Amino acid sequence: MKIAFHAPLKSPDHPVPSGDRQMARMLIEALRVAGHDVGIASELRTFSREASDAAFSALRKEAEREIARIRRLWQSKGPPDLWFCYHPYYKAPDLIGPALSADFSIPYVTAESSYSFRRNLGAWKLAQDEVAAGARQAAVNICFTHRDREGLEAPIPEVRSALLAPFIDVSPFRDLRRTEAGGNRLVAVAMMRTGDKMDSYRMLARALALVADVPWTLTVVGDGPARADVSEAFSAFPAGRLDWLGERPPQAIPEILAGGDLYVWPGCGEAYGLSYLEAQAAGLPVVAQHTAGVPEVVRNGETGYLTTAGDIDALAAALRHFLVDGTLRRQFGERARRFVFEQRSLPAAAARLSGIFAEFVGSAK
């Protein structure tokens, strides 16, 4: 099929890296692996940081101009077979796809659409009404976690939904040579910003303080506006225990992970976390919390340990298990690598997408 792809939160071509941008790119690649012709339909970003009637009205006008532009293009060159929208939610609704899909009688599909009861007020309600209408119109709403699926179906029971497990491109990890650092090299990859990321950094620092008697070093990959706060959270540790690498390009991450022994990231509020999959693809077991979407990407007791949310003692105990037992660490790491390569790769995602389209959209054109 010829697919028009749109990500209203952040275009796949946006210059600032993030999990959203990475997932959008992965979806495009998986669709192409499945045999589809995918093009980015629009660069329009409908993200609003704060609720505002005036701002939403302005976005609507921008969207109307974009609809008119795309309509003229399609009338001249022909419409696609399907509109695919990634991650519409109350702060970034799809204000283009539903109208064009209806005008040209093509299927509308969403991935990672979400709905929040708490946002049914003021300008957020205006945006969320658009998300709900799009979810109802969609031939299928593709969800990456059971949690997200339940969150969409509860307020909008008539929606059609299907599950697609989070995935990554495993090819950069295929020929990696593990250079185990002796069991004590911990790795964390995360942006430095306020909110859930900062909460995870602080929790990690507190857990590491409880295993200070065991030899370890922590490599941190990431940067951002909360860098000073992150540094302060780890200020009690000797300088030799922390290796701050800053922001690194995506192509550098596999080798960094391959030089570690254990991936540790509490995961406060994580939608799912593609970094967990990358770490496992590199052969690293994971220590994180059993919270939000993390259980969708880490097999507790098989590829890592997921501890009770908020329990710092339990997080530290899980760390200690891996730090002192190299055999356990290698067993979990080997299972983690197999799990990602066999079940969370681009080919696996492409096959699942083909099945979803066959069930909800019809045979590929």
UniProtKB/TrEMBL annotation:
<protein>
    <submittedName>
        <fullName>Glycosyltransferase protein</fullName>
    </submittedName>
</protein>
<dbReference type="Pfam" id="PF13692">
    <property type="entry name" value="Glyco_trans_1_4"/>
</dbReference>
<dbReference type="GO" id="GO:0016758">
    <property type="term" value="F:hexosyltransferase activity"/>
</dbReference>
<dbReference type="InterPro" id="IPR050194">
    <property type="entry name" value="Glycosyltransferase_grp1"/>
</dbReference>
<keyword id="KW-0614">Plasmid</keyword>
